Amino acid sequence: MSELDGMVAVVTGTAQGIGRAIAESIGAAGATVHGVDKEDVDLTVSADVEKFFARVGDVDILVNVAGGVVGQTHVPIDEVTDEAWDAVVDANLRTTMNCTRAAARSMKRRGYGRIVNISSGAGRSVSLTGIQAYASSKAAQIGFTRQMAHELGPAGITVNCIAPGFVLSNPSTKRQWESYGADGQRALVERIATRRIGAPEDIARGVLFFVSPAAGWVSGQTLSIDGGHSLF
Fold first, then answer.
1. Which run of H or of E encompasses 96?
2. DSSP code, position 92
3. Handedness of CA 190, 22, 126, 182 (dihedral sign)
4. Tell me, what DSSP letter sits at residue 194?
5. Which whole number is the average pLDDT over 185-205?
């Protein structure tokens, strides 16, 4: 018997990369996984999120992966538009709030739940590509994790966070990696203690720990999975 047998999980952002790897890992551990991406449901719209969770029913595990830079690149702060800022914040923070709010109802009623938010190393430091809203919304996810751990802990729900380092996981990160050129790539890798960039499976392994029954006394934590890039 696998440790997640009989559990129901929702994983957002499963179209590619980290979200897909997490969904596959949780499924392999025995859970029934409902993956969802922006093509399936607009997770920034609360009514659509509520309808999706109503169809799924009771949820034991929620992993908030959906987010990203929404195709943006660096623009000086004095040129950032309201629309550009809101698009990134909504993609990362509002989706996390909407899904957590919806999942928490059944978790509280049944006295059990595991929530994991996927932030970023940018949320603990800076955005390597200089996108202000991305660094800010990822930092906000970390604060939201702590607050939800405090609020939901008495109901038997743990809430934790992972801050991935540089992972080649989607077209945006691949373009970013290629833009560095050979010298830039070498310099980035040399700043990582393990001397390699990450893979989606590296992040999925951390999620598996947080959602497991063994992690029942771990909550409100942010784990950097970055090969030792952030040492603090």
1. helix 95-110
2. I
3. positive
4. T
5. 95
CA distance 163 to 226: 8
**Strands of 113-118's sheet in order across:** 32-36, 8-12, 61-64, 113-118, 157-164, 222-225
- Yes or no: say if 202 and 168 are a contact pair by the CB < 8 Å rule: no
Q: Which of 137, 187, 146, 183 is nearest to 166 (CA)?
A: 187
Residue 91's pLDDT is what?
Answer: 97
Spot the catalytic one: 53, 85, 134, 144: 134
Q: How far apart are CA 147 and CA 175, in angstroms?
A: 34
Cβ-contact 19, 65 below 8 angstroms: yes
Q: Are 57 and 106 in contact (CB under 8 A)?
A: yes
Q: Residues 48, 231: contact at Cβ < 8 Å?
A: no
Which positions ≥6 away from 130 have C-beta within 8 Å?
A: 74
Strand partners, 179: none
Which long-range contacts (C-beta less than 8 Å, at least 24 apart) are formed by 42-46? 43/12, 43/94, 43/95, 43/98, 43/99, 44/90, 44/91, 44/94, 44/95, 44/98, 45/98, 46/98, 46/101
Give phi and psi for 131, each to the nearest 5: -90, 105
Q: Is 112 a catalytic residue?
A: no
Query: Domains along the chain?
Result: 8-167+199-225 (3.40.50.720)
Contact 186, 179 (CB under 8 A): no
Tokens of 232: 């603090």
Give the mean model confidence (pLDDT) for residues 88-115.
Answer: 98
- The rounded percent of the chain whose pLDDT value lies above 90 is 89
> What is the mean pLDDT of the segment spanning 28-47?
96
